[in-house]
Specification:
By secondary structure, this protein is of the alpha/beta class.
């Protein structure tokens, strides 16, 4: 039985990937930090290896005997007090895992990057894998910068050093088991709790988390080393997304659009006050800046080369609403 080693297996996308791999008949080994929340893996036949992304020797041992290594662990926050902490996790951690996979003789290492590492189009035309940032200064937020640097690093390790690395770039995954929840999941929960009185003019690519998991597996089987593959779903405006959520949940969609200048001013003040308080801002300024661009992407390369497919965004949103409701994040029962 083939073995797969997964970092980030306790997380949102990682837990879906673990289930996908088990369904494919693989033996799964997952990295977990000591005292980490492992509820996403409860009841699953998974070997847990305690450790972290800084332990090079431990990572190499954990990769031992694994035919496939999937690196999904990452620090995913839209605001962080110390960007260096995020850099160590997302960039240095990526190098540690990929080198450990190669040293242990893994046949393929799949690095979970992000569409955050792909430059969005300025004219709302869906961007593809060829869309590159001109410089690091053009990238907003420590998170996006760290994911971009890790993306560039992974491609370089494959192309210049021959490491067996394939990259996948998920869009905005939604669905079950978003336990934190992620920044994306918070949008859904806030809507379901009636905390989104208005919206801004922006767009995103919505994809079911289970489709993203399947895309990782397809990348391990069919992906070309050094190449990246966008794993997306449907391109929606935020307004359309909230209207779909309203239909699914029975709640009213916000009718008012907040001007970007007003949202920017609120984000700037909120972020400044959060720094003074030592707390996380409600509306991080970097998140407002990112919303200036429509994050619309094309998955045609993954569809063509990997056989990747995605379900409708409404199905992803429906599953997410049902899960958040069933697990007590919101009180009212969801309706299809």
């Amino acid at each position: 039985m083939d073995c797969a080693f997964v970092t980030g297996g306790t997380g949102f996308v990682g837990a879906s990937l673990v289930r996908c791999l088990l369904a494919k008949g693989l033996r799964v080994r997952a990295l977990a930090r000591k005292n980490s929340d492992r509820q996403n893996l409860d009841g699953l036949n998974v070997e847990i290896v305690e450790g972290d992304l800084t332990d090079k020797k431990g990572l190499r041992a954990a990769c031992g005997g694994a035919r496939y290594v999937f690196h999904l662990a990452a620090d995913y926050r839209l605001w962080v007090r110390d960007p260096e902490v995020m850099h160590r996790a997302n960039v240095d951690g990526t190098e540690n895992v990929l080198r450990a996979a190669a040293a242990a003789g893994a046949e393929r290492a799949v690095h979970c990057s992000s569409v955050a590492a792909v430059r969005p189009s300025s004219d709302r035309v869906p961007a593809d894998e060829t869309s590159e940032y001109a410089s690091l200064d053009a990238i907003v937020s420590p998170y996006k910068k760290s994911k971009y640097l890790a993306d560039v690093l992974a491609r370089r390790l494959a192309r210049e050093e021959g490491l067996p690395v394939v990259l996948v770039n998920p869009a905005m995954p939604v669905g079950p088991r978003d336990v934190k929840p992620t920044p994306t999941g918070r949008i859904l929960v806030d809507f379901l709790k009636g905390r989104l009185p208005s919206y801004i003019d922006t767009g995103m690519n919505v994809v079911h988390v289970d489709d993203v998991a399947e895309g990782h597996w397809l990348a391990a089987l069919k992906g070309r080393p050094g190449e990246r593959y966008i794993l997306g779903g449907e391109n929606l405006t935020l307004k359309a997304l909230l209207e779909s959520l309203a239909e699914i949940s029975g709640r009213s969609a916000p009718r008012f659009q907040t001007p970007y200048a007003l949202a920017y001013a609120f984000g700037a003040v909120d972020t400044a006050l959060a720094r003074l308080r030592g707390s996380e801002p409600l509306a991080p300024l970097d998140a407002i800046k990112m919303a200036r661009h429509y994050m619309w992407f094309s998955s045609s390369k993954a569809e063509r080369e990997l056989g990747y497919r995605h379900r409708p965004a409404r199905e992803a949103l429906r599953d997410a609403v049902a899960w958040f409701t069933a697990h007590g994040y919101v009180r009212e029962a969801a309706r299809a």
